[in-house]
Specification:
- The chain is an alpha+beta fold.
- The longest helix is centred in the C-terminal third of the chain and has 23 residues.
- Strand 13 and strand 14 form a beta hairpin.
- The strands form three sheets. Strands 1, 2, 5, 6, 7, 8, 9, 12, 13 and 14 form a ten-stranded mixed sheet that branches. The chain has a two-stranded antiparallel ribbon with strand order 3-4. It has a two-stranded antiparallel sheet with strand order 10-11.
- 31% of the residues lie in helices and 23% in strands.
- Helix 3 packs across helix 4 and helix 7 crosses helix 8.
C-alpha cells in the first residue's frame, strides 16, 4: 500500500477536460437486439444511455480532445507539459500502446516522456498518485494525465449482462507543482490479486493470443462476476476512502462531495450507505454515460464543476475500484 502524497507536498489538479463520442446507444436501442428492457437495465444499473465510438473512430482521439480541453483550461500551454501518463485498460495497439499517439496529435515536445498505465477502473486515480509523486520526487512540474476507455470495442453486444454496462469516454487533467485548482491532500493505492478474475478479458494477450474464430469465444470479451464485484467494490472504496481521510486528518463530515467510480447505481448507493453519507453529497452521472472505466471519475468531476455543484474551497473525495483488483482514493481541496 502506498500512502504517498501528504500535506507537506501539495501538487495541484489544475484543470479537468472531458470527451465522449457523439453516438448514443439508449436502453430502447438495446431492446431491439437483446432480451432486455429499459426497466430491467435501469432498475439494476441506473444506466439509460451510453456513448460509443463509431466503427471508423480512433479511441485515442477521445484522449486528444479531453487533453486539449484540460490544457486550454489550465494556466499552462502544450509546450509546458513535461510528462504524459495515459490510464487505459485496452490500448489503441498492444504495442506501442495509446500514449504516443496522443502526444503526437497534441504536438507536444518530441522529447516529452510518456507511458500507458493499467490499473483497471482505478487507473485515473493511480495516474494522479503517480503524477503527484513524480512532481514530489523527480522534479516534474506539469504532468498531463488521461483516463481513456473504449470498452464498446471489447464487449459482446449479444450478452445483456455486460454490454448494457459500458460506454466510451475520456477525461484529462493537468497536474502542477503549483497554481490554482484542486490541492491534493492525500492519495492511496491498494491491490488484492486474489480477486484478479472478478473482471477480466482473457483473450488477446500473450497467455491467450488472438486467434481465428475469436469472435465466437467469450474469452475475447469482457466478463465479470457480478456478485463478487458488488461486494468487493463497496468494501474496497470504503477502505481507501477512510484511509485518505485519516491520512489528511479529516473526517467524512469535512467532505463536501464524493465522486465515486461510476460502475452502477446500486454499488454507489451501497457505498453511500456503508459510509453513512446521503446521496445528495455524491456526484452521479452513470445514467448518461454508463461505466467508462478509467474515464468515469474525470467525467463525473467535470460535470460537477460545470454544473456549479463543486465550488472553490470544497473538499472532494475521489474513490474507485477496478480489475486486478486495484483500488484507491484521492482527497482534494478544490
Amino acid at each position: 500500500m502506498n500512502e504517498s502524497c501528504h500535506k507537506e507536498t501539495l501538487p495541484n489538479i489544475l484543470s479537468i477536460g472531458a470527451a465522449v463520442p457523439d453516438k448514443v446507444v439508449t436502453n430502447e436501442d438495446l431492446e431491439k437486439t437483446l432480451d432486455t428492457s429499459d426497466e430491467w437495465i435501469t432498475s439494476r444499473t441506473g444506466i439509460k444511455h451510453r456513448h460509443v465510438l463509431e466503427e471508423e473512430e480512433i479511441p485515442s482521439s477521445l484522449g486528444v480532445d479531453a487533453s486539449r480541453e484540460a490544457i486550454e483550461e489550465s494556466p499552462v500551454g502544450p509546450e509546458d507539459i513535461d510528462l504524459v501518463v495515459v490510464a487505459t485498460n485496452i490500448s489503441d495497439m498492444p504495442i506501442p500502446g495509446t500514449s504516443p499517439f496522443i502526444v503526437n496529435e497534441l504536438g507536444l515536445s518530441s522529447d516529452v516522456p510518456f507511458f500507458d498505465l493499467k490499473a483497471g477502473c482505478s487507473g485515473f486515480l493511480y495516474a494522479i498518485d503517480v503524477a503527484a509523486n513524480m512532481i514530489k520526487g523527480k522534479g516534474y512540474e506539469r504532468i498531463l494525465i488521461i483516463g481513456l476507455e473504449a470498452l464498446s470495442r471489447v464487449v459482446n453486444w449479444e450478452d445483456r449482462s455486460t454490454c448494457v454496462l459500458f460506454g466510451d469516454g475520456a477525461g484529462a487533467s493537468v497536474i502542477g507543482a503549483r497554481g490554482e485548482g484542486g490541492r491534493i491532500l492525500s492519495t492511496s493505492m491498494f491491490g488484492d490479486p486474489s480477486k484478479a478474475k472478478l473482471i477480466r478479458l482473457e483473450g488477446g494477450g500473450t497467455r491467450l493470443p488472438p486467434a481465428e474464430g475469436s469472435e465466437d469465444d467469450e474469452r475475447y470479451y469482457v466478463r465479470m462476476e457480478g456478485k463478487g464485484v458488488f461486494k468487493s467494490a463497496v468494501n474496497m472504496m470504503k477502505r481507501s476512502s477512510l484511509n485518505v481521510l485519516e491520512d489528511a486528518g479529516l473526517a467524512l463530515s469535512d467532505v463536501d462531495w464524493i465522486v465515486p467510480h461510476q460502475a452502477n447505481i446500486r454499488i454507489i448507493k451501497q457505498l453511500a450507505k456503508s459510509l453513512g453519507v446521503e446521496m445528495d453529497r455524491i456526484i452521479v452521472n452513470v445514467e448518461e454515460y454508463a461505466n467508462t472505466s478509467t474515464a468515469t471519475i474525470p467525467l463525473a468531476f467535470k460535470e460537477g464543476l460545470d454544473e456549479g455543484s463543486i465550488e472553490p474551497g470544497d473538499v472532494v473525495l475521489l474513490t474507485a475500484f477496478g480489475a486486478g483488483a486495484a483500488y484507491g482514493a484521492t482527497l482534494l481541496e478544490w
